[in-house]
Amino acid sequence: MAILKLDHVVKRFGEFTAVNDLSFEVPEGGIFGFLGGNGAGKTTSLRMALDIIRPTSGSIEILGRKPGRENASQIGFLPEERGLYRRMTVLDTIVYFGRLKGMEQAAAKKEAERLIDRFGLSEWTKSMVEKLSKGMSQKVQVAAAMVNKPRLLILDEPFSGLDPVNQKVLEDLVLEMAEAGSTVVFSTHIMQHAERLTDRIVLLARGRKVFEGTQEEARATMPGRLRLESQGDPAGLPGVAAAKRGETDTGWTSWEISLSPGTAPGHLLQACTAQGFALRAFESQKPSLHDVFIHLVGAEQETVQ
Prior knowledge:
The protein has 305 residues and is of the alpha/beta class. It is 31% helix and 31% strand. The protein is built from 9 helices and 13 strands. Strands 5-6-7-3-8-9 form a 6-stranded mixed β-sheet, sandwiched between helices. Helix 2 (90-100) crosses helix 3 (105-118). The longest helix is centred in the middle third of the chain and has 16 residues, at 164-179. The radius of gyration is 24 Å and the shape is elongated.
């Protein structure tokens, strides 16, 4: 079952098209990455799913029905543009968001205290939000999105403003939420987080979908790459699209190899064996999601970290 489905969705602001004929499905369960550079249309798409703004055309289904307020109790949302009541305490803020989503006072307080401890905020439980640093405020807002243990948790650029230690804490919490049965959708332009967390991804560029599938399916869109150390030049071997010479060490030369489409690393290894092509090293190199992004989108179109 799809917990979120967009079908040929378009969103225009005047003459500007922010989202262009976007269709994808998020299956229930697991962690789904909504990826793209700044201005790719990620935030606009999520706001439409939450009924904050309406699409120009196309249809959206969330939790098996149209977007609307009746879904609020089963959804947690961290917006890209943060907003908290500055004169409320940390504890009261998280409890308040839990109560807005239908939680009983005692249950909201218990879960708020757990999240406060989890994020290392216990010292600031009774502090006003206005007294917190940007990073601590971010943690409070994340906790407010998670407090109702939502069926669907939507996080828009959740790692912004967090130091590496607290990014790891948030990654662990996201994994815990998914293991407990929540579906997590998070948007980011930082591919390393998506690489560590996601089961499936959608990749956007300029409001259009350029890829949807698993990480392995995304990597399969790129030519295979290898690192060899050999005594001969591998450029003439079958399946080698390009060979870039590297360092030389007492007769052995390092090579960066790009394979032709459809050529698996094992095929090249078999060819080396059959032709008596001497090797000292043969290492398959797995492309990162960053590499995939640049390959599918193009370095000139988007900037990612």
